[in-house]
Amino acid sequence: MNERILRVLEFKKIIEQLNSQAATSLGKDQVSQLKPSTDLAEVIQLQQETDEAASIVRLDKAIPLGGITDIRESLKRSAIGGILSGEECLDVANTVYGGRQVKAFIENLEEPELPVLEELVDRITPLRELEQHIKSCIDDHGHMMDSASAKLRSIRSSIRTYENRIREKLESYTRNNSSMLSDAIVTIRNDRYVLPVKQEYRGTIGGIVHDQSSSGQTLFMEPKAVVDLNNQLHEAISKEQQEIEQILKELSEHIASFERDLYENVTVLGKIDFMFARAKLGNLMKASRPKINDRGYIKMQQARHPLIPINEVVANDVEIGKTYTSIVITGPNTGGKTVTLKMIGLCTLMAQSGLQIPALDGCEMAVFEEVFADIGDEQSIEQNLSTFSSHMTNIVDIIKKVDYRSLVLFDELGSGTDPQEGAALAMSILDEVVSREARVIATTHYPELKAYGYNRENVVNASVEFNVETLKPTYRLLIGVPGRSNAFEISKRLGLDEQIIDRAKGLVGADSKSVETMIASLEKSQLDAERDYEQAHEILLESEQLREEIMREWKQLEQKKETLYKKAEEKAEKALSQAREEAELIVNEIRQMKTNVTLKEHEWIEAKKMLEEAQPNLSRKQSKQTEPVAKEKQNLKPGDEIKLLTVNQKGEVLEKVSDNEYMVQVGIMKVKVKRSDLQLLGKQKQTIQKPVATIKGSNFHVSAELDLRGERYEDALLKLEKYIDDVLLAGYSKASIIHGKGTGALRKGVQEYVKRHPHIASAKAGESNEGGSGVTVIELR
Asked: Are residues 67 and 202 in the same domain?
């Protein structure tokens, strides 16, 4: 991206605002290097980074970046053997601590998806031991602490002893010889303790003179009695400095051993600060994340110029690159055309720099290889060029480089020369740039260009609205409507005589009048359309609100219905359970009947009556809810396969007794039941040989089916073993074992058992009308 466009569109001011949002020198350094990217993948990545940080900023959570400094220069010096100062070592420790705080902050966030930030903080090494080592030697002001080493503690102890002894001796002078002193104080000159002695008592005090006052009346003397002590003190201070340097050297070497980890930490922290600076600027501008494309398509709703205060700027809708590739904004000066032009260009640069743009959600921006602009007064005194010549020099340079991946911004195209020639030149330039499929936005006040958009396929006219009543521009961009001069209306409002205005109208050509009439009609149509849109939008919002209320009530009804269904199911299940228990009692009673061949007729009748009475007493409504299949009204015929719902057993229709009653066979029992208690499983089947039981005794009335569902594995196999013995004794040739599908464990156990049984000729899964893989049919030898 060329530097000139960054200057013309004032991108530097965006950088200044962004710089104020960075919390560390690391982040500010990255801000200063920010330039718009022309790589689509990189721009999308930058926008993803900004959006992640913005999701945290929107929650009003502040990332802890305090104490982090740029320690890269210190790391370089330590790596080549340099000795860092106490302050530099402390900066390293504080940066390590800050990195650990940032890492913990991101890891403890409840945001569900922060892939970029999570990947970044994974690269931060905590280095807690290094931080503790440094802080055990250096205090919060960068001074070496006594605890840094035992030797340093001993040296500083001796220094304090020497200082105390010196002060005691000198203070005795101030008490006993105060008349010889200019002031009764102990002071320091050349790092040695001295007294302010009057000139005339120099010989009386004796010692070394280190300084004198400006008048020469006071001498700062070191008495002979403290010279040795001062020498010893200096020697101790020298040893202290040597020990401090030794400790700093060791600390520097320790820091150098972690150079790679520390460098990675500051790199990551700088990037995170940079991300949050972009997010905070977006939040300040009330900006949103744009969708990025490489098709040259721009769509912004309620976009604002980033450098104009929010309470002053007028928001506009802008779209280009889909049905048209060029916009020509016409109308008078001071109408806001240039502001609109710069807003589009600046938002494009911001989006390509990973910054969010001041527009509503859902905006879309394109990545351009180059952004060109010819904006403002380009007159060059140095090159002896007029305004027109300077503009043309710039335009010639643009035309040499422009292509389909360019955004071109022309302000007052063709101005600065003869109006007719300028308008013709402007149209020719536009034709050339449009033919190269670049995206073009141009402003002009030439009336000849008002019809330009109507004669070109990929060009649309636009204007900036002007309020004739207030004589002020509204700065609203009207796409599809060319601007008009409004000169007559403005003159009339300002008090110009109507006769003069009418005479002027007569001098205007018919073509110009028709164009102005057309523009006025277009403006009215657009305003009417906008008003209709606002009304429709309000109706839509009301409809959405009504829909939400209806959906909420519908949900409540559904929940109520579910509750009723559940209660009905529980009641039905209770009734069915009771029926099964009664049926089980009936079956047990039949088995206990003592008969050799057949049951007596009155006993059969009594058993059937008990079975019929065991049916659950459910209301019609409950039956419909719990067993929807029972509602079916198919005609049943003899031979149809059915399920008797009251005992949950399969059977076969024998005959129709009445309109609502059938005689069915379930196992070895024939029962008369109601139609509502029957569920049709299949129409009349092919004749299947029914197992014929040869009754050999009262203990051999065995069902042709064994239901093992719900049984424990071991109990089921015991029942199976007894059942096979029973059917063999009863003389059956075929029987069915119902084990269900479930997890498959019981089915596998049954199949393995029957395969090993010596009296079972074959075993196979049941047909679809017999229960499928939930049933094993065996044939007996």
From this structure: no
CA angle 109, 115, 118 (to 5 degrees): 55
- Count of structural domains within the chain: 4
Based on the domain organization, do 276 and 236 belong to the same domain?
no
Residues in the chain, how many? 781
Contact predicate 150/247, CB 8 Å:
no
pTM, two decimal places: 0.61
Find the CATH number of the domain harbouring 709. Answer: 3.30.1370.110
Distance CA 196, CA 187 (A): 8
Domain range for 237: 147-252
The region that residue 372 occupies, defined by phi over 0 for left and psi between -120 and 50 for alpha, beta otherwise, is: beta
For residues 327 and 462, is the Cβ–Cβ distance under 8 A? yes
- Judge if 223 and 344 occupy the same domain: no
Average pLDDT, consecutive stretches of 10 residues, N- to C-terminus, the chain (781 residues): 87 95 94 94 96 91 91 94 94 95 91 87 94 94 92 94 90 83 86 88 83 86 88 92 95 95 96 96 95 94 91 89 89 73 94 95 94 70 56 87 93 76 86 92 80 80 73 74 63 75 67 52 64 81 85 85 83 78 70 50 56 52 41 71 81 84 80 83 56 42 80 81 82 83 78 84 79 83 77
Give me the amino acid identity at 324. Y
Given 240, 267, 284, the domain boundary residue is 284
Residue 89 contacts residue 262 (beta carbons within 8 Å): no
Q: Which one-letter amino acid corresponds to residue 391?
A: H
C-alpha span between 298 and 365 (Å, rounded): 5
Nearest to 636 by CA among 676, 578, 579: 676
How far apart (Å, rounded) are the C-alpha atoms in residues 55 and 64? 16
